[in-house]
Amino acid sequence: MKITAIVENSVYNKHLWGEEGLSFLIESSDIKPVQILFDCGRSGTVAMHNLDVLDVDLNKVQYLILSHGHSGHIGGVMNISTALSESCIVLHPGIFCQKFKLTDNKIQPSGDQPALRKLKTHYTFKIAEKPLWLSDTIVVSGKIPKDKNNIGLSNTHYFVKGYREIEPDLFEEELALGIKTNEGIVVLTACAHRGLLNTIHYILSLFNGLPLFGIVGGFHLFDNEDATKKLIEQVKYLNPKVLAPCHCTGLISSATFYSAFPKEYHRFTTGDVIVFK
């Protein structure tokens, strides 16, 4: 199993481009191999450039998973979907609700939902309101339940257009991935708006008690020192062997994770690769 960061906020490879956004390529080594593009970045242009440089054959990508409705994850959907005409798009129906963010005391749009709606008439969708297994080893979470441990849960300055009015966004549409490896379960997150611990515990519950092996993706801490310290204490009990925080985690929070998990920590910027057995 190989995970490649196609788009991430940071980039060190001079041939690749970066932008504020996220896109991962997941390549399984199952008996029936599966290739998945998880989100498509903000512009689509950056993802397409990097996919070309990395010599990714888009004809082999079976699924495009859209994690949630923010622009850094779905903004490039029109460019990407054109190149992935044979792929199936996996999403939660809540992703079509217009997103907003409080910026400079003003509520402003923060997602490209009109572009998503245009795709309805041209592409095959798989709706993931409940867990959706793409193979024997890969599951899309469906709606992630909330529990009492809400460290990292983000709904203070994000909003969504409901049926009648703009209301606080609970990110009920956000999807994560669970991947079974020989060493345990890898949890792949986009932003973990539903709370990283919520997400991890729910994904693990889908694998009948198998242990956690790795956590890869955005932790949505944005350098919140208090939340980072609390989260690290909880993650220690889960004993992950691979930790790759990126995107919305924040540079300082990522460095704090590195200090707490120096052996387990993996840098995961644009073009970086993590291989699991």
Mean pLDDT across all amino acids:
89
Helix/strand-derived category reads alpha/beta
State the order of secondary-structure elements, H for helix, E for strand: EEEHEHHEEEHEEEEEEEHEHEHE
Shape: globular
Report the major sheet: 7 strands, mixed
Query: Which architecture name does CATH use?
Result: 4-Layer Sandwich
Cross-sheet strand order for the largest sheet: 8-5-4-3-2-1-17
Computed Rg: 17 Å
The CATH class, by name, is: Alpha Beta
Overall number of structural domains:
1
CATH topology: Metallo-beta-lactamase, Chain A
> How many strands in all?
17
Helix content: 10-25%
Strand percentage, roughly? 25-35%
Terminal CA distance reads 6 Å
Count of DSSP helices?
7
Fourth-tier CATH superfamily name: Ribonuclease Z/Hydroxyacylglutathione hydrolase-like
**Low-confidence runs of at least 5 consecutive residues:** none
Structural features, described:
There is one protein chain. The chain has 277 residues and is α/β, with parallel strands linked by helices. The protein has one domain (2-275): Ribonuclease Z/Hydroxyacylglutathione hydrolase-like (Metallo-beta-lactamase, Chain A, 4-Layer Sandwich), CATH 3.60.15. 22% of the residues lie in helices and 26% in strands. It has helices at residues 45-53, 71-74, 77-83, 113-119, 196-205, 225-238, 251-260, and strands spanning 2-7, 23-27, 35-38, 63-65, 88-91, 99-103, 106-109, 125-127, 132-133, 138-140, 158-161, 166-168, 177-181, 184-189, 212-218, 242-246, 273-275. The strands form three sheets. Strands 8-5-4-3-2-1-17 form a seven-stranded mixed beta sheet. It starts with a strand and ends with a strand. The model has no long low-confidence stretch (mean pLDDT 89).
